[in-house]
Specification:
Imidazolonepropionase-like amidohydrolase; Metallo-dep_Hydrolase; 14 helices; hydrolase activity, acting on carbon-nitrogen (but not peptide) bonds; alpha/beta; three-stranded parallel β-sheet; Amidohydro-rel; TIM Barrel
């Protein structure tokens, strides 16, 4: 197989901090996680938001072979300050240019006119833009020229049927951000006319989407769910478990009915991903690594299994982490096994086209023509 590509794997892990203190990034922990990823057959990662100086230095060290792990491409720090004027936005981006970012990333709070400024400035420098959008809808982002979209949905109130928006606004005020995601998904219509038009636009413009199902299922899983919170591959990362239990439990205030409602609405998320796939959208695989209950390396294989549960075939999933990723990256040297490409390869002992779980049957991992890992990792 071509080496697996994780299109949403943040390079630097933030550590749990007390009070309102800014998170501190842990380079040693991050290097440990990157080394684990190469053992799981991940030979390239895209980091869609990275502390500009620290993160892009780590990218350079990975690509120079100073740090063991996948080769990396990375964005500068995400842009999410809705108070910034157009000149201020452009200056933020120009300040990042000396670190040579591969991307800029616009985030949830930015208004359409701000997203437009970032896209214009980035494209002036021939740098693509990743969108984690919400205040600006996906449809607006596509019209403005965004190059890539992160996660499966934009969670924008404007994407809900008009007669459901007032109830959702009330849910945000009364239930908070993550709990109100349940209300949003209950109201969402993946088969609506606006969504069909969006799929057509995404497919036509070849805007890639990394769907990160594990980021939702990991966050919103019940504490007793062994698939994520009791994942044996997290034993190697006790510091992550400690941080997530202290600071990162998104469902700490959920009750039994919240979990029930999420599980009842969750098939809509699968249906939407299947609709995008069937509509020809350029889907790519990603984990949103550094988020809670995602085990470095093994999390991508769990993502493959979640995509299969959503109705995608093994061949479609393998394309997402191979040929589709290469297309989204505009790379002709990775993602496919053929003469002239880099020898970033994974040898498997079982056929993943028969069962996607067979991506775990690793015999060896090759990076740039050199075997860098042997045998499937053990917990």
């Amino acid at each position: 197989m071509p080496g697996f590509i994780d299109m949403h794997a943040h390079l630097l892990f933030p550590r749990c901090s007390s009070g309102d203190a800014a998170p501190q990034f842990d380079r040693a922990l991050s290097e440990k996680a990157l080394s684990r990823q190469i053992d799981f057959g991940i030979t390239m990662v895209r980091s869609p938001a990275t502390p500009t100086v620290e993160g892009l230095k780590l990218r350079d060290d990975l690509n120079a072979g100073i740090v063991r792990g996948p080769r990396a491409i990375a964005s500068a720090e995400l842009i999410n300050d809705a108070s910034l004027t157009a000149p201020q936005l452009r200056q933020v981006m120009r300040d990042a240019l000396p670190s040579r970012p591969d991307y800029f990333k616009v985030y949830a709070r930015l208004k359409p006119e701000q997203v437009a400024v970032v896209i214009d400035e980035a494209h002036r420098h021939r740098i693509p833009v990743i969108g984690h959008l919400q205040r600006t809808t996906w449809a607006q982002g596509v019209d403005l020229g965004v190059d890539h979209l992160a996660h499966s949905l934009d969670w924008s109130i404007d994407d809900l049927p008009a007669n459901r928006r007032a109830a959702y606004t009330a849910a945000i005020k009364g239930r908070g951000g993550f709990r109100s995601r349940i209300d949003w998904l209950e109201a969402f219509d993946p088969n609506g006319i606006e969504q069909r038009q969006l799929v057509a636009a995404l497919a036509h413009k070849r805007v890639s989407v990394d769907v990160t199902l594990i980021a939702y299922d990991g966050k919103f899983s019940k504490p007793a769910d062994g698939r994520f919170r009791r994942n044996p591959f997290l034993r190697a990362f006790p510091e992550l478990r400690s941080d997530w239990e202290r600071c990162g439990d998104a469902t700490a205030d959920w009750n039994a009915d919240d979990y029930r409602r999420w599980q009842a609405a969750r098939p809509k998320l699968s249906a939407w991903i299947k609709r995008m796939s069937d509509g020809g959208v350029l889907l790519v695989s990603g984990t949103d690594l550094t988020n809670e209950w995602i085990a470095p390396g093994e999390g991508l294989h769990q993502e493959f299994e979640l995509l299969a549960e959503a109705g995608l075939t093994p061949n479609q999933i393998l394309r997402m982490t191979g040929a589709n990723a290469a297309e989204a990256l505009h790379r002709s040297d990775v993602g496919i096994v053929e003469a002239g490409r880099r020898a970033d390869l994974v040898l498997l002992s079982a056929d993943p086209r028969k069962s996607i779980s067979n991506t775990r049957s690793i015999v060896w991992v090759m990076q740039g023509g050199r075997i860098v890992s042997r045998d499937a990792p053990k917990p």
